[in-house]
Amino acid sequence: RHLRSVLLADHLAQLLRAQGVDVSLVPALSDERSWDVLRQLRVCWPSGSGGSALSDAISALKAALGRCPCATACEQGPGTAEGVISKVHLKSFVEQQGLLGYDPNLDVLLVTERTLQSLAELQEAVLQCPVSDPTAQPASCFPSSSCCSIVHVVNCEEEFQQQQLDVLWRILDPGAHTALQKHLVCGPVKVTNPSSPIGADQYFQLRKHQMYEASVIKYGELAQDEAWTEVIDTLTVAAIRFEMLSTAHRSQITLDLENNSISTKGTKSGAFVMYNCARLATLFSTFQRAVEQGTYPPLPPVSELNFSCLREEGEWLLLFNYLLPFPEVLQQAAQLPPPSKGIRITASTETVCKFLIQLSMDFSSYYNRVHILGEPFPHLFDQMFARLQLLGAVRDVFHSALATLHLPPLSQI
């Protein structure tokens, strides 16, 4: 249930970093199997904080809890839940502060050691977040025009618990930065006709097995070679990331776990995007080998190219629909809305996946129709060089967009 929100947070962080925004990430997982899946999905998060700094932060929070007028100490007894340190009255604080947008059912929170550890990890991440502007406050990890300093990316099933942590943070650490918390909520993930509940690790292994079978069907015995292991792993990660991130984060995702949903030929899949990225790599490696063999001259400098040779409609479509608007696409994908009275925000992170899928479809159509590397006749070189320069830019866009998804470009499939 965490997988979608974690992948969304990871993608959002990469998009913000691409805009020069300094970001720290705080994990919210303790299950070792979940961490193993995230490592395989190339999520670059710390596995959790530790050491004396975290212990000191927890001790400070306990001390603040003892001084808090909203908190009531809990003596361990027959009627007390195990591990509960204190009861904190969240509702009265929310009403007193006039906070808007919180669940009206927020009432009494039973604070445990684990609760304080989660809060200490959040504090530590905010304090350690690098700041581009040395005059800015330590908590200002987002631009001054942003609507918040802390974004809680959480699935809808756990939104209530995250709101509790948010309010507890405001109570125990009333610094300015805690007033700038917002929540980015992911819709539910449903599975069609599940025979039994499926966890993230089972989902990953299922998709990996399906990707392997699909590769064997398409490429035969080649796909069973050990050299294909990394390729199939990358295709599996691409398939899962696109499956989880191509839908607006507020909407429900319905997973079809049947084999036919992971086809390497499907134009809506991450595998299709990776396949077209690999086609570009193959094109340029083929050209480079031909240059080394003396078949073609090297690609001239851009200033010497004749772009008037680009007369195909598909060439101008690639330029005007993808190359020119790409920086704006990245910016809009991570753009957080202006401040509002509520606590929920949205982000158009699905834009990048949709952009890559559409780019792959239009590039594939053009590539299948136009012969890029023609006969080695001098009068054809101008057009070939112009096309190679155009497709080199398309390749760069593929690589940059895939980097926001922590996906390495494949050189061949």
SSE blueprint:
Blueprint: H1 3-18, H2 32-40, H3 51-67, E1 71-73, E2 84-89, H4 90-97, E3 108-112, H5 113-128, E4 150-155, H6 159-172, E5 181-186, E6 189-191, H7 200-219, H8 228-245, E7 253-255, H9 270-292, H10 313-323, H11 326-333, H12 350-369, H13 378-403
Parallel strand pairs: 4-5, 6-7
Antiparallel strand pairs: 1-2, 2-3
Helix pairs in contact: 3-5, 7-8, 8-9, 9-12, 9-13, 10-12, 10-13, 11-12
Question: How does this structure look, described?
Answer:
This protein has 413 residues and is mainly alpha-helical. The protein folds into 2 domains: 2-130 and 146-191, no CATH class; 200-404, Isoleucyl-tRNA Synthetase, Domain 1. Helices cover 50% and strands 8% of the residues. It has 13 helices and 7 strands. Strands 1-2-3 form a 3-stranded antiparallel β-sheet. Strand 4 (150-155), helix 6 (159-172) and strand 5 (181-186) form a beta-alpha-beta unit. Helix 3 crosses helix 5, helix 9 runs antiparallel to helix 13 and helix 11 (326-333) packs antiparallel against helix 12 (350-369). The longest helix is centred in the C-terminal third of the chain and has 26 residues, at 378-403. The two termini are 32 Å apart. The model is unreliable at 132-145 (pLDDT under 50).
